[in-house]
Every structure is written in structure tokens, then in C-alpha cells.
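May I ask for an example protein's residues together with how it folds?

___
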Amino acid sequence: MSDVSLMIYPWDVVSDGPERVIEIVASLGVDRLAIATAYHSAEVISPRRSDRVSTLAEANTIHFPIRASSFTGLAVPPSRIARENPDLYFSLKRAADAAGISLTGWGIAFHNTDLATDHPEVAIENCFGDTFAHGLCPANPSAQMYAVELFGEISSSGLFDRVLVESLSYLLYGHGHPHELWGARFDPTTRYLLSLCFCTHCSAAAMKRGIDIGLLRVRVSHELHRTWNAETPVGRDPDDGTEIGSLHMVWPELAAYTRMRNEIVTELAGAVARVIRTNGAVLDLSAAVWGRPAFSNWMEGVDVAASIAIADSFVLESYYPTAGEVAREIDHTLAAAALSDRGPESIASAITLWPSFHPTKDSFLSKVDAIRGAGVSKLALYNYGTATAQTLAWVKDAVEMMRGNDDRQ
């Protein structure tokens, strides 16, 4: 059976009202709403409105009321929405239940600038000893406990039958906010090497595996200095992402460190899965945040095959200009799924409702058709508030196309 979800932010529910949101969503025929709960920063344009068009989201907060005992260490504070509209999610739940629409709780784990800034000892630390403010380190026990407690709180709320877990990984450097000034070479190779975490917990994990962490750290820093400061060969084509793969074949310490990162993230995903299922919900595990497409997920420590084995559904954020790119990512992910004897039922695909990605309905539906044609039955559409009047209307066509598979079953 197909399952089409529409992603939504809580400030859109505040603006339009829970009943009106559900009325619109029901008219489009979708099966569920995936609503953000704990979220990072955003400046959002809502093109269908004539007032409150621009929203500056309250960053790094949770938007529904939480118990004072929810966190034992690192904690995410309640937002103004949670304080001023404590019944918002429950009102949405009541309206959704009446309309036969399910709710997914969508939460952000380690992409939290406030926590990384206020607790640099938990943040990603590069080879030069600098900490990054855009993300927490998955190897840090404090970060791990925070993730388990956060998704325990979301899944135990009684609001959601599914929980979408995002950014449970080593986030690549290059946040996009605040304004980053980058004049040196910034390609897949330099980005990955700079993003490697060398904090005490990652270093300890490496030493347990027999990795010479001191040597690796020196070589990574030397390679970045060499690449940044050497004169670029005249006419050099840009790095398309294949160079870093080749380096892993000739640099055993780097390859071992990458595998270690994958193992750390996989183990943590298992712990999060257990707490979500204990609370009676289902785990939708998002692919990497910036290490996309799926065949680049390893850059953030996301082992696609292992993630598929753990999750009830592995969610691809297929935000690409062409249907061919969407189909390519799904095909690769199916190859990884086969290693765990799973198939298209283990995958969900998310695409945007933005005309910048598909300027015509035909180009949008060609991506939906590629998803459906691959046997993937779960489609997520991003998102309610940022869609134009035209692209939101396309949701109904997407639903009809996805349900065409149901008719053949």
C-alpha cells in the first residue's frame, strides 16, 4: 500500500490553525503529516500567504511541551510555540484523527548550533583542534544520551505512530548559516578531510581498533595545507567526488577511520530504534544531511545497508533537479538493501514541492513516477508551508500516481 506524507512546520499550524491545515491536507488526499518537533534554524518564505510571509524560526528548540525530567544532561529548551501554544500538537492530533490522517514526529538530532556552541566539548573537533558549531559528535556519550532521550520524548508523547530521525550522524562541514567565508579549495575531498572529528572519544575509539590516530591526524592536516596552499595546476577539472574514494584505497588509516565512524553511527541508530519501538512507534531513519546522494552517505558515517537493516524505513532526501538522479539514488539504495534481504518496502523517498527543482508538473511527476516505478511505496513531500499554490496542487496528482501501484497489487 502506498503512503504519501506531507512535511510541515509547527509555525504553519499556528498560522493556519490545526483544523484548516487538516482540511487542506485531507483535500489533497495524503495519508499523513510529518511535523517538525525539535528543529534547527531556518528563515522561511511562505509564498501562499499575504501576511506573515517571512518566518524566522526559533532555533534549536523543541516545539511541544516536554517534561522537566526529559533530559539528564544536554537538553533542548521548549520554544515560544511550546510555551504559548501548549495544546497545538494535541489539537492537530485530534483534527488528524478525525480526518483519518496519521502523524509522524520529525526530529533533528545533532544539527544543533546552540548545543555545539554552549558545549564545545561535545561538538565535532577537526584535525587542527577547532570545534565546529554546526553539529555534535556521535561518538560522544553526552550526545548519544541526548539523542536517545530526545527521541524517547518524541515517541512517548502519544502523538505519533512514526518518528522521523534526522542528522543522527557526523555532519559535514559547510552549514550555510551563518555567513561562511571560504576562499580556499572546498570540494568533496577537502570537505571530508576537514569534517573528520578527532575529539577524545573518536580518538579513543580509533585506538581501540588499532588505528594510529596521531599519524592520521597529522597526515590529514598536512594534506589540507598542501591542497589549500599549493598552486592549482592550470586547467585542472574540479573534484567530482571520486578522488576521496580513491584516497581510501591507498590510505589504510583513513579507510579504517571511515569504517569506524560508520560503526559508531550504526550502533547509535540501533539504540534510538530500541527506545522508539519501546514506546510503540515506528522508526523512519533519514539518510545523511549533506553527504548526498545515498552513495555518499558514508561521508557522514551513515552505512546505508546497516541503516536499512535497523530502520523500519530508510528515508532518501532526493532533492535533485532530474528524475534520472532520483532513480539513480534509489537504484543504488536497493543494491544496499539487498545485502540485508530487504527491498523497496524498506525505502521512502522525499522530494520537494519547489519549482526551482521542477518548474513544470510533468517534471515533478516524472520523479514521482521514477519512485513508483522502482517499487517504492512511501513518498514524502517537502513541504506544506514553502510550496507555492501551484506546486501544492500537484500533491493530489502525486497521490493518484502513487496509488496507481495499489490498484495493480
User: Anything to note?
Assistant: The first strand starts at residue 3 and ends at 8. The chain has one domain: 3-185+262-408.
